[in-house]
Amino acid sequence: MSHSVCIATYRCHDDKADFNKKAQGIAVGLTVGSWTDLPEARKAEMEKHLGRVLSVTVYEPENAAPGERYADLVIAYPDVNFSRDLPALLVTVFGKLSMDGRIKLLDLDFSPAFVSAFPGPKFGITGVRELLGIEQRPLLMSIFKSVIGHDLPNLREQFYRQALGGVDLIKDDEILFENPLTPLEKRVEACMEAAEQAQAETGQKLLYAVNLTGSTSKLAANAKLAIAAGANALLFNVLAYGYDVLHELSSDPEISVPIAAHPALAGAFYPSPHYGIAAPLLLGKLMRLAGADLVLFPSPYGSVVMPKEENLAVQAALIDPALPVKASFPVPSAGIHPGLVPLILRDFGQDVVVNAGGGIHGHPLGTAAGGQAFRQAITATLSGISLPEAASQPGNEALQAAINSWGYKE
Ligand SMILES: CSCCC(=O)C(=O)COP(=O)(O)O
């Protein structure tokens, strides 16, 4: 094919459809509108805009039960049809189509020309590691819990307790918005003060991802206010605002801190086999292209479960060397406790952020012990020691208490 194109892969479920015809209809309908009726001279002019069906693979088991028949359709869209931004690409390939029957967008392959418009994550895995001064081990992030209705001294104390546990990052709860009790700049000041106090005791650096909220037109200004107040990371609810907003923020040279993407709303897009956008694209490739340095997603182990195969595909998209931007840190989350650390490290390796809220604050010996239990579990797993064996060693009482509470899996 001579023109530069982006390629979309769809899964289409239909008990009776002629999938080749369906694919042809999409390729033409989402590009030039109609083709066979065009006069030859017009066809020559429009050819460079025409979508092309690259393949149609039909899955039609014998005696297929109703609902089982589907096909994967691969269609190329000429770059000349859309501007180099994600809203234009997404509306082209899955705008109206997302509402047209049982069809799910599985993947997008971007042309080099399209990708060249995206600097990607400013920090990525290597940059976040450099900021923290941690070369190899998995990172540990703690989530503020119970934040609404709390004042600054209370939040500061919660922060301090989390930091004392030896966590590398602390993130706001995604439901903490601008409010009179803990306004953005004051919150950052209070928490960074607590971070310094804890660092004096633990010797450990720490990133605080403060939730960047407000109307879209004020986000960049709010981010800069937070940074001026001392924020060294941001949390962002990407899907509520759109990928392009993340792209704008991450490519702003004055927003010089890592951005952690929260997956809030993702469940409205990926879980159905029939509709929406597949998780590896939604939470992997698109988040990374738009510039997320860290991406949270539901793990296969905890309370909000995403199947393991899908989870590992999200991770693969976040680190795939074929995409010429920095790799984003995978952050499998939700319902994580210290007893799950061996599974997380086995499945994700060392370039992972172990992330917990309830698994830290709910520790029977308190929040600081929650962080310590995770660190002890990480150290043990990296040394090839089982959690029960590590927990029985002197100094690892926090891990022992965590295992007594939540159990462990290996
Ligand atoms: C569904 S991924 C986002 C995880 C998250 O933000 C969170 O608050 C998880 O908290 P938990 O107490 O389950 O660790």
Automatic annotation (TrEMBL):
Its EC number is 5.3.2.5. Residues 124-406 form the Ribulose bisphosphate carboxylase large subunit C-terminal domain. One of its GO terms (biological process) is L-methionine salvage from methylthioadenosine. GO terms for molecular function: 2,3-diketo-5-methylthiopentyl-1-phosphate enolase activity; magnesium ion binding; ribulose-bisphosphate carboxylase activity. It is an enzyme of class 5 (isomerase). The keyword Metal-binding applies. This is 2,3-diketo-5-methylthiopentyl-1-phosphate enolase. The gene is mtnW.
